[in-house]
Amino acid sequence: MKDRAHAVPSRLRVGVVGAGMAGLACASRLRDSGCTVSVIDKGRGAGGRMATRRLETACGMAQADLGAPFFSAHDPGFAQMVEHWARQDLVAPWPEAGTGQWTAIPAMNAILKHLAAPLDVRFGCMVKALARDERRWWVLTDAGRLGPFDAVILAIPAEQAAPLLSLHDFDQARAALSVPMLPCWTAIYVFDQRLPVASSHLEGGGVIERAIRNSGKPGRTGPETWVVQAGAGWSADHLEWMAADVGDHLLQALSAMVGQPLPQPISRSVHRWRYARPAQGGRLMLWNDNLRIGACGDWLEGTTVEAAWLSGMAAAGHVTKTACADRAW
User: Fold this and answer.
1) Mean pLDDT in the chain?
2) Residue 35 near residue 66 (C-beta atoms within 8 A)
């Protein structure tokens, strides 16, 4: 359905860098408003911090939500969207994680695949720089130059957005650099038997912040799979450890958390999120009306899936509103 409130000519071209929740929410609203949108992402598929990893094991294919394991919906607009996704069997309530918590099915990236499907998304493109030619933007990637665009929106972590913004809008770059991002070591363990743990959602307070039986979430299949997320403090203190050492340490910490020895995993994977979540929020988006460049993401609004969606929607809404008000677009 078109966004009739701020419909714009289809000739208006917008480049969105980043195919996580913020970027895809932004691109979807822009497309619904009549814009021609191109999304550019360095990854192999949609996900961002809602990524899902698949592991082939002796007990079959295991999958694990590597980033956000679940989410809540407090904003009325986002709650309405979640209900829409639920009717499409893209999400389901997960009471074990707490009242009002949801998880995507059959994996957290299912929502993003759904959002990305009707869009022009260029995966596998590492953005190197942004270039401005008169009133148009070009996105310079390792795969070549993309554009021209009337506007560019960066929906990537603050540390990645800052250098791209710095040559064009120092105030935005400074705002991005002022938001510290917390790291998170995350380990995935696959077992050939169910662990003797009643709950599929455990919260720690020491080395481990959260441990989740991913195979116990709604709509999941496959062998016993656990995702262990280390605390931000521990992750920062051990940020340069070897992944194998982190995997060993978190497995020991999981054993201590459940209070008994664990069997050896039949498969495991360790991932270092350098920019897992922001330490603070408070702004919906960044935007420069003269240059038509801005940024959105959970690092501006908060730390959640909902915050990312709200930020992306706000950025798209502002672009379409200003485009309708300014005939120079």
Assistant:
1) 92
2) no
